[in-house]
Amino acid sequence: MKTFGDFEFDDRRRSLRRSLKAGGHPIRLSGQALDFLGLLLERPGELITREEIERRLWSDRNVDFNHSLDVVVSRLRTVLGDKGSSPRYIETVPRKGYRFVEAVAAEPETRPANKRRPWSRPLVTYAAIAILAAIVAILFARTRYDKFVPSDRLQASPTVPAR
Predict the structure, then answer these.
(1) How far is CA 95 from CA 49, 50, 54, 66, 89, in A?
(2) What is the full DSSP assignment across the chain?
């Protein structure tokens, strides 16, 4: 979780919301705007070049990159209330890139000690299915084995001559 100004950005959930002191309301953003904000928040105060933004966020898309980036930056500034000649959050460095200028505080992720990890439930389910499949396979092999290999009781005794 990263906080800046009146906002909180959750990296893991990819969500933006107003901080609790500002109402705590979630803010709807497109995937590209969230990706761009996440990229800026990774390195606050540093210049993120347009080339790096294109490489990391628009590498596999066939779109007009410059127009798409301008639209995303405009939407993000509108949501953050960052319009005007002196930006509070996103500074444009003409023909170079963008810089996040507000201080960012990273909070450690808090998870209750007794909360299960998200992968533990599927792991237990898969283990139970694997054990059941092994039991069924053993039972099936056992029934087939008895059918083709006679038991000791049915074999002729070596001391009794065959007729």
Answers:
(1) 9, 8, 13, 11, 18
(2) -EEETTEEEETTTTEEEE-GGGT--EE---HHHHHHHHHHHHSTTSEEEHHHHHHHHSTT--S-HHHHHHHHHHHHHHHHT--SSS-SSEEEETTTEEEE-S--EEPPPP--TTSPPTTHHHHHHHHHHHHHHHHHHHHHHHHHHHHHS--GGGSPPTTSPP-
CA distances from 100 to 33, 88, 104, 133, 148 (A): 14, 9, 9, 54, 75
21 HSE (CA, 13 A, CB side): 6
Quote the CA–CA distance of 163 and 161 in Å, as a whole number. Answer: 6
CA pair distance 41, 29, nearest whole angstrom: 15
pTM of structure: 0.62
Write out pLDDT tens, residues 74-84.
999 999 988 87
pLDDT at 37 over 90: yes
- For residue 35, the Cα-to-chain-centroid distance in whole angstroms is 12
Half-sphere exposure of residue 91: CA atoms within 13 angstroms, side-chain side: 13
Mind listing the pLDDT tens digit for each residue in 116-138?
556 667 788 888 899 999 999 88
